[in-house]
Structure formats: structure tokens, C-alpha cells
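Appendix B. Raw example, untouched.
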Amino acid sequence: MTQIISTVDFEQEGKQIGWLRVPHSVTRSAYGTLPIPIAVIRNGPGPLVMLSAGNHGDEYEGQIVLTRLIQQLQADQIRGGLIILPALNLPAVLAATRVSPLDGGNLNRVFPGDPDGGPTWKIADFVEQVLLPKVDVVADFHGGGASLDYRPHASTHYGPDAPDEHKRRSLEIVKTLGVPHVMIFERRNKAIGLPDAAIRQGVISIGGEYGGMGSVSRPGVQLVQQAVDRLLACLGIKGELPAGLPEPEILHIFGPAAYAYAPEPGVFEPATELGDQVHVGDLCGHVLFPENPARSSVPVFFKGEGAVVCKRHPGRVEAGDCVAHLAAPLNA
């Protein structure tokens, strides 16, 4: 059973702002806790939705939008309920890192978690065992973090055995969010991420990547804000969807060949931009060696065909660093 103590009542009507207190006993604080901020806003019957950001601490657009949402939204403006977590992996958020500085945990890689594990594993266990069983939909907002730059997309995730109605509704919802590109992930034999936890609980999982490079993208913030507004409208919680929504392009990541990797340490010079269409054998870029300028550069080639949706941000690479990845139309 979870060791995390919540200061909010998930069944109470109205608006509450409180904490999930994660036990963290250290030398400087024998009975210490990590206070993860949480808001619960409820107003009568209706859908219950979990909105989260800060799963990775160096991804900021969702953190900004959900922080403002907590400040501005009142219970009498909605129908149903919201559980809002703007800094889900608080230690990583405070350190501005992808993983927790306390236990090295990447929250989106440790589900279903462990109630007796490190802080990251405790958080994952609480989300899967306590929060997700309460909600109908979870929306977890990401960006590329410090190492990647993404062309923004919204996403939805489901397992191959999900009922057809679940898949239909998942796609219907994500297509209303106003993001020009939508990624579909049919996740097989995985158990590690928040989307996988949602799949196990039968919860509709919405995600997306809205920025990157360890900075705050103004267009990314605007897209997340629009996605939140339209999600709430689509579910009948608040507002109405605008008429005549354009049809987004539906994409998927088609397997290992979608990714390009640095073959050895050096400085990577990309040969493509986000959105470029590439084919098998096209040049992804070169790895150069300024510390040994007489040495010839090493080319990196694409092994798949599709659009460049993600690129590495830092120039310096190590062997095995992802330098780009592709996505292709769903039925391609």
C-alpha cells in the first residue's frame, strides 16, 4: 500500500489545493516529506480527468499551463472534476532535470512503481494504484526536454487488445485538440510509462510533445493551453468546441528504423530540419571531431522513411545518443 499521504479529499466538492506528501527520510530531515502540489476541482456529476506535467522536470510548457489553470479555474466553471498535478516528479522539476536527482528515477520509465521504493517509484505507484482508478481520462503534457527539439504533436495511447470503442474514443478526443499533428501509439508488451499504467486501468491516455531544448516555447505554451481548453470542451467539462475543426495528420512511429543514433562521440551537425520528408539512405548528419581535425567526419544515414519530428538539441554527442527520429502516416 502507498506510503504517500494526500492533504486533499478526492471526493469533496469545490476547489482544493494541497499536497501529496512523499516520505523522504534523510540526514537533514529524519521525518521529511516531498510535497508534490495537487489540486482537485469538482462540481457535481460528470467526467473526472487527471492533468499532469513535470513527469520530466526539464519540460516546461505543461507546467506553465497547469499552474495557471490551478490559479484561475473555479469549481462553478466546470461540470465533473479535475485532478491537476503541475509538478508530478517534483525533485526533477526543482532540479530542471529529466530524471530525479534523489534516486535517478525517470518517472515515465518506472511504472507500475513500488510503494517501498525510492521517491520516483513511490510516485509512480500512487499514480497507478490511487489516482488512475478514479479518472476517465489522463492527459500528461511533455516536451523534448534539454536534449531534444520536437515538432509539436498531440498523442494517444492504447494497447492492441483495447476495445474498439476505447480506440475510437481515444482518437476522437485527441483529434479535437487543435494540434496539426497527432501521433498514435499502439503500445505492445510494455509496462513502464504512465500511458501503460493508464492502459492497465482502462483509462483513455492523452499525451504529446510541445517544445524542447530545455526552454519555454511560446507557441508550445499556446498549444498546450488550447489542448487543455479543447479537451475540457470535448468531454463536456467546460466550454464548447469551435465549429469546423481541421482534420490533423495522423502519424505513428513505425519501429526501430524510425530512429537515428550517433555512432561515436563528437559534434553532430544535422542535415535536416523538423518537418523534412526523408527516405531510407538520406543523410541525417555528420559527426565531426574538432579535437582531431585531420580525421574525416562520420556520416549518419536514415534507415526509415517519413517526416523528421524530433532532433537532438546539444551539439556534443556520445555514442548511442538519438540524433533524430521519424514518424510516418498511420496507414503508410
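End of appendix B.
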